[in-house]
Amino acid sequence: MRAKLVIANWKMNADKAMLAKLLAGYVAAIKPPVKAVACPPAPYLAQAQQQLEGSAIALGAQNVSQFEKGAYTGEISLSMLQDLGCEYVILGHSERRSLFGEQDTDIAEKFVATIAAGLTPVLCVGETREQRQAGETDSVVSSQLDAVVNVAGIKSFEKAVVAYEPVWAIGTGDTATPEQAQQVHKLLREKLAESDADIAQRVPLLYGGSVNAENAEELFAMTDIDGGLVGGASLDASAFAAICAAAN
Ligand code: PGA
């Protein structure tokens, strides 16, 4: 049995006061054995690290540079994230792909660098509504996954998480049905199994896209759904705690 994992992606939302209140709510309400991860915006990672110390909640970042250090204005390195106690990094979120032009090749480089630094990458894949309507879901997510497996190697998935986030479900309230999500998760596990069946069984596959306190339980009940990547609902401590409870 794979342990459930639930990751909060706050995106570009927070200020100091909101962070303090939200994390206090997380710490008070989220109970093991579910593993929860909070990914606040980068400027608040230090504050979050302090507040989460000694709690069951791990810290993650929403993005990272593939470069080690130097003349990369505005970028954040893996060693900085390590310094701030981050254990996870979200990579290739659809907003990074569509709004900031991140390509599969960038994401693969970031993935390799993240593994080398000893952090856990959370690789996001997912199709747009147009791609789903055109029957391209399987080929889109397969090629997004392959782009990383081919560069990083299947062994690096020993310590990675994959998140299926259909773009049409993100922030829209239009959640994939448990069956729709399970179908893609199964495909992703089969794709990984082509390279290594054992690793494929162990990689946590998260679903993301309008997960909330009401729909989490039926999503997490599916065989290949090992938890969630939660945006909007993670900005409400009681909703996020309820999602974590559904994973338990
Ligand atoms: P959502 O976002 O839960 O608000 O749909 C999920 C995500 O973008 O990771």
Summarize the SSE layout with pairings.
Elements: E1 5-9, H1 16-29, E2 35-39, H2 45-52, E3 57-61, H3 78-83, E4 86-91, H4 94-99, H5 104-116, E5 120-125, H6 129-133, H7 137-152, E6 161-164, H8 178-195, H9 197-202, E7 205-208, H10 216-220, E8 227-230, H11 237-247
Parallel strand pairs: 1-2, 1-8, 2-3, 3-4, 4-5, 5-6, 6-7, 7-8
Helix pairs in contact: 1-2, 1-11, 5-7, 7-8
Shape verdict: globular
- Parts with pLDDT < 50 across at least 5 consecutive residues: none
Please identify the structural class as seen in this structure.
Answer: alpha/beta
The Rg value, from CA coordinates, equals 17 Å
- What is the overall pLDDT average? 97
Identify the CATH architecture of one domain: Alpha-Beta Barrel
Helix fraction, binned, reads: 40-55%
**What is the tally of beta strands?**
8
Bound molecules: 2-phosphoglycolic acid
